């Protein structure tokens, strides 16, 4: 059985990562997972939020947002509605936690890096593309901060790599990296964030229709681990300039 | 090695469930997991949100909130700040999804049930206590709606049971049902929602410090499955009036 | 003529006061006036709001709120609506003023006590139960602050006691402590806050239907004074541990 | 002992009422109580709020606001802060209740009258000036609605008159109609709303410093009744065009 | 062809400027352009916004608002809606920029002047009346600050005068100072702010129906320049006390 | 004297227009004016806002926004702050008015087109690039609606073309299409929107430092007319597919 777009169950969509997409940001990436396109910028500022002052430690946080017409039907702008929806909050928090998992706050020193992940076009997997792209923007921003001596010489704030992918069960078959059409039909949906050494940072699985059993969960985790490993390789190539 | 409160790693805190705590709500429960106390009410209204009208299907949703002094230090009221925080949104959405997993919308008919979960005292595991207590309030509300013929005769909107528990790794040891002090020290934190037949509705694991490997993940899932089974038994007793 | 619940016109509903209902708050009380149940916590923090800094004086303030399903029909959460309604504001201000009437700011020193009054179940008289219960929570919090030397030795921040009750004219008869059903039918509704020595802190009378004359006003004030005296006795017993 | 501005204790400040101050509003009044100036407009619209539709009854409501520099120090605009303060809410509600006390909803029919009371200059007593001026604007608006046949022929929506005044105890002396300087120094502050026949619509007394006893309360009520009677006479003259 | 109110195309409506309309504000003016009435106050405070501290320079800003019933149909209060509309923002910014054009920040020193322009009655041209009136209030406030030595001796913060007028093309004829009825029918609408020496501070022209050509633009600019010169003369008289 | 980037005073920056940048929107364009990049989408929906229902006429509106790191220093998200700033409102309104100038509402029928203009990278002239790009997106959306028969056969909702450019006086020299660095230094700043036949839709000139005289205004209008003509040619090529 082949998928809507002809992929095998364990195959990622074509992934592209363009670095340096903004002339202003210290790190910036346009990442695509098939038709999903997310623009990720990393902004470095000296200083930390008030509750962290004097700790000698830095901070990394993220904000996720969708452009109103990134989806098939135009959505209201959250700035116009005057409040941020639960889904936006949830994904922003997920991205922030994921990136903080590979940051050494002490090495970063009292500096803050904000990741902005704006979805320009959505076709499923926007949060996982955002995590994967934001990591590359973060790496560029950290390198910039090292060059500018904002991070002290010899210190390495980045202690690993991180990538994310969605998996799900569609018509009983576990699939990697769901596009929107597959996502809508999935009985179970899971987002997994892994480090480059294959360990888990986040595992978020949700039964959309039927609850799932341990065997299905294991199949999904296997798929996701493989997908994250592939994404890690692509990130490495992007940062090496060989993508 | 024993825990702060003398429990074994795979032991729940004392759980109490008091039904009928409100004279107004169609279902209401005061649940405690040790010192964590959550007041759950289920409110039945005829009709559904606009986007669901004419579908013949019902809706179940939830709102979670903490009283300002449910925690050790008083927090600002979200009504005073004028907006709901990301954590509140995230937990409200989790509770709603968990309960919808055991609802047959068709059988419910065009009726809405809103679960309010207000934390009166927090000591870790507020979201899992909320899911577990809300299920009992929901069951009472569904029974009420059946008695009142709001749900048509012979229909069973409730197609299963659902309970939730937290697990985590503290000092390298996987523990069930973390209290606040353990939660703060946990390297990995996971919330798991299971149905009564042992399947998963939600699995949300987060590395707070070090990423976790597959073996640790498996150990946590084992612990959580056992904890949810224990909670299911307690819910059953509570609903049978034998708790 | 007897009342709905068999009381005489000048009789309070059964009043219960449970102290120490929260393990976190410096003072906490679950008070009930019949079926009206309000959870009151008193939170002590060192320091005062900015506008009071350097004055050597403390501050006491209050926030009142109703749980969404504390009433017969579920109300929207003010945190979800994003703003606090006029009634909530008005009652919060009333509670704060009432308690400040028995506080010696100098003796309190630059410390702040916040009273949170959350209505768990409403059946009329929520604001008067809140004032009456909050006073007991405040007394416990002040005693705690004295023990912890947050209040300087020998100082007595609490200079009196305060209690509140509603009165109203129903079918031409002045009644004490209206339950919801009486409140709805009242032609005139009055909330009175008295100190333990029988003086007035607040008198708020409103003609719901017909304006009231001086004679009716006098009858209501007499009833209220008696009711407050009864409540003062109950508060004293609660604080003495003899309730 | 004479007052700051030479008045006797039971004397009102000079009161002026200018009708027809707006060419747009159905009723409009610029009222002054000494240096306190409030601009009151009454806007008639056909139809009622949703919750009242089909009842055959009308509705009257009010909104109070202070211009930012109506006071000695400029205050923030509530529109800029994005929320309405508790005091504003409380006063808007008081004005609305006061006017509704003299309205026959049935006679008004399904029409709505909104009173806007904007304080142009504040010197104490803004809420009482607002009630007193709003009544005159309301009377003009009702007359307009009768002329335009929006109110059915022969119906009299206005069933009485209403006026309000502040009283307070300053240095132990009960005073009528406090200006700002007196208000700040008052030990007790009371706002009283009376109908033209001398009955009470609202009595709101607050101990600002010391609680007050029944004797003081009686003295204040006597003063207020006299003051309201004087204001009723002035309103009558204004409406007769003989002021 | 004569206009609705009998004016010639290049004629202003009757303009009145009453100074000293508030006893609190450092400068205050009630200005009318025909039936348009705007109350302008200038509030002086020592100090500047945070972003300007230490610069040695002052700041001038403005807030514009319409009373709910300043228009023919009552509008919602922006404070009640909880947000400021685009038009209000736009006009507030225009007034601020216009006045800052004649301020020497260095001479003003680290002081702030806030202009509040509240429309009491609207009949077209509210923003131009606001600019013209606010200038007079500003001049009075600057003079006050000089007298009080808040502005250092010998310094002149006010380096020119500023006035504003609307122009438009109605039925093909360029007209000065449109009233509401003309404004609604205008094909092109332009607001022009000039200094007393005839130069432009703001030119804002909008095609409401048909785009306009260069010749029409020139005719409108000629009209506006003449109108502003007339207003400058009236402002000068008002400040000289000879109006 | 040559400009920062070597342009002559009357020269535009390099302009690129890429159509079809979104797979979801009915019209979409990525436009760049030098380093300024704006993503414009046009969303067609059947139906109109409530106030326009039954009129037989359509509606066109626009929303402008800047990504947080589109500028040199990261700005707060308006969705996070909970309100839209004045500048955003002002520009959104300008874009909407500009496009409505070339729309025949009757021909559009009761359909709505929303233009979203999101600035990905800012270097001066974001609002003029937005108008110019949005026109192309609008043209594509109208063509789509004609193809889909949402616009009735034979009807032409688009009655002209529209483009916008900024001009300003820098060091006394009038310059076309200011980049950020020039914009900051400009004494006078003007945004001009023209139709393809050379008439004006909007003229917004502001003296940033010195007021400007009629001669300077004329020079700026000449420059802007030329610049808009050049942009019109580029738009035409883009729509013809020959850019």
Automatic annotation (TrEMBL), chains A, B, C, D, E, F:
Which EC class is this protein assigned? transferase
- Which residues belong to any copy of the Exoribonuclease phosphorolytic domain? 11-141, 161-225
Show the stretches that span the lipid bilayer: none
Checking Pfam families in the record gives: RNase_PH, RNase_PH_C
Subunit: Homohexameric ring arranged as a trimer of dimers.
- Provide the family line: Belongs to the RNase PH family.
The record's section on PANTHER family has: EXOSOME COMPLEX COMPONENT (PTHR11953), EXOSOME COMPLEX COMPONENT RRP41 (PTHR11953:SF0)
Query: What exactly does this protein do?
Result: Phosphorolytic 3'-5' exoribonuclease that plays an important role in tRNA 3'-end maturation. Removes nucleotide residues following the 3'-CCA terminus of tRNAs; can also add nucleotides to the ends of RNA molecules by using nucleoside diphosphates as substrates, but this may not be physiologically important. Probably plays a role in initiation of 16S rRNA degradation (leading to ribosome degradation) during starvation.
Which named protein is this? Ribonuclease PH
Q: Which organism is it from?
A: Streptomyces chryseus
Per the record, the gene is rph
């Amino acid at each position: 059985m082949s998928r809507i777009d002809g992929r095998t169950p364990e195959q990622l969509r074509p992934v592209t990562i363009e670095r340096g997409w903004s002339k202003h940001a210290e790190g910036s990436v346009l990442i695509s997972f098939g038709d999903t396109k997310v623009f990720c910028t990393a902004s470095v500022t000296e200083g930390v939020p008030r509750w962290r002052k004097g700790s000698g430690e830095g901070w990394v946080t993220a904000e996720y947002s969708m452009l109103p017409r990134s989806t098939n039907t135009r959505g209201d702008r959250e700035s116009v509605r005057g409040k941020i929806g639960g889904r936006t909050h949830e994904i922003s928090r997920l991205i922030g936690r994921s990136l903080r998992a590979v940051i050494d706050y002490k090495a970063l020193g009292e500096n803050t890096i904000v990741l902005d992940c704006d979805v320009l076009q959505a076709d499923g997997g926007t949060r996982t593309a955002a995590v994967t792209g934001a990591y590359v923007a973060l790496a560029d921003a950290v390198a910039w901060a090292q060059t500018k001596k904002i991070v002290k010489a010899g210190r390495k704030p980045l202690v690993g790599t991180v990538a994310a992918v969605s998996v799900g069960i569609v018509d009983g078959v576990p699939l990697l990296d769901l596009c929107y059409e597959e996502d809508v039909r999935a009985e179970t949906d899971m987002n997994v964030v892994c480090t480059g050494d294959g360990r888990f940072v986040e595992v978020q699985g949700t039964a959309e229709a039927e609850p799932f059993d341990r065997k299905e969960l294991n199949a999904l985790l296997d798929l996701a681990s493989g997908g994250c490993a592939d994404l890690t390789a692509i990130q490495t190539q992007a940062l090496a300039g060989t993508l």
